[in-house]
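Hi, can you check this record?
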Amino acid sequence: MTRYHLRYQLLPDTDPAALAAFCATHGIEEVVLIFNSEELHTGHPVGADEDRWFEIVRGARDILVGSGLSVSLNPWVTAGHADRGRVQDVGFAPMVSPFGETSTTTASFVCPNWRKWLAAHYGRFAELGFRVLWLEDDFRFHNHWPLTWGGGFEPVMLERFALLAGDQPTREELVAAITAPGQPHPWRALLQRTWREAQLEVLDLVRQAVGGRAMIGLMSSGLGVASVEGRDWGALFERVEVHRPHFAPYGDVPARDLSYSIAMLELQRPLRPAGIEVAPEIENWTHTEWRKSDTQTWSEMVASQLSGADALLLDVHPFVSGDPARFPRIGRMLTSSRPALDATATGELTTFGVGVPWWPAAATTIHGDGTLEGLSADPLRAAQYLLSYGVPIQAGTAPVTALFGELAWAVPDPLHLLRGGLLLDGTAAAILAERGFGSLLGVQIAEIVARETVSRRPYSVERIVDGGALLSVNVQPRLARLVPDESAQIWTEILTPRLDHWGGGRVAFVNALGGRIFTLAACAPELLGRCDDGQRLAQDAIRFLGGDFPMVTGGPHLMPQYARVGERSRLAIVNGSADSARPVVRLDRDPTATLLRPLEEPRAVRVERDGDRVTIEASVPHRGYVLLEWDA
């Protein structure tokens, strides 16, 4: 069943009884109280400020618990989110960016005064009795506005690094070394270790101060940038009991961007050991009803349920809302959403599809480009390419795996992947060749050409060998010039504006190990223009590689999740287009089908079989889902 946990900002005059009544009306079982946040934020609360919030929180907590609600607490800052023009001087060493910018409110993770305050702060509020005490997602080094990239380069942190490294570079020398092109400098791993140890030390102090009186909840951000920080997910999950994975945008976006949310939820599942409670956050920014549509909120809640979430962390009210009765539409949205959420509530599940791997230490291995951002290999690119073309994914490696971009530096055992089915973009192919595995790819990478490279014969279009149809590669940021081996199958070729040959486009190959390799010249396949021909090529490539799972056609951006749930197989398809569609699936079973229209009751719909194809006999609307189920 659906578990709503409402994350709610306390104002000094918030009426806890009115909040309890709102929760009772809309089936909310837990309130996560936030305090000292956003518009009311004056910095880390100390002295009289902390005393004031303590009494406000205590009064609200007592009334809410007396009303039968479970209550957790979310102090809004640990290190601090962002300055936003605020200044605070309470003796904390400030964060410093890679460029020497200094925060006016955000504290360094190694500041002893801040550490002492944070432990005492959490320890004090633990006295009140909460189910979970949350660490805000500012418990990180990156993204502390207005610092460029973030912090972690303050003098006190560099002193710790110097002790570990046995060397004392300047900040400028350190940044240049860890981001330099080519083989990673040893300092990069040492700085990541410095950051990682500092973060874990702080978490240990918080846990000791809480003393088991509440579970600790961790809010996290993106995987790529966490890797740049050297985050040790296993060590973190040994110290926390609840996880809020980041997965959704803060405002309205095109429905095709659900590919990001689906992939984020999937790729974070293997990071967590069994027993960790997971509550994805359903939120908007800047916390107004107009910032994100009810339809989008609904679809993100359904995606969370399908991913196996234990609860939904609702951050849907303005931080200055006071009385939730001021916003009746939010309550109506939550009540209307519940039938679909109950229908998609999922316990243990096993997902199937193209493997999308991720190695948390990826940023330690990547060859730099002179920036910290360049170390943040994005594991979602392959997922976004595949999902919008109707191809399901699963986290990790699989019989068929997709490996895009700089992540190829992080593969611990390339031969394992090269023995199976492997989809590569141009960058990943070039990296594997540089690592000594070029003979197993079926192509040579003559060069990587950037779009801005001046040439009398620039790349322009891609021609499908079978039929001659043209696709555009004109705005691809980079293209690999592929020279296929004689035994390779050339599916497409890249042409110049005069339609002269430029290089191979998509190349299939069976290597000496029996592995099937499919290489794309595109170095950012997820940015290629989408079309029916592109979908056919993508799905045929997955079939060549050995993919025997159901894939979806019937309209643009019909995105699937294929899973086994208990004794049943389930294919959940969401429509990421603004146009309604009737999905078509190759399937050798006769499934039952349930249509989920946004904010409406689920209803059974018919399917029609034509050979090996099953068509849904109902229109799936914008952001709507259809669930196909059959005996596993």
Remarks:
- The radius of gyration is 26 Å.
- DSSP finds 16 helices and 32 strands in the chain.
- The CA atoms of residues 316 and 330 lie 7 Å apart.
- The mean pLDDT is 96.
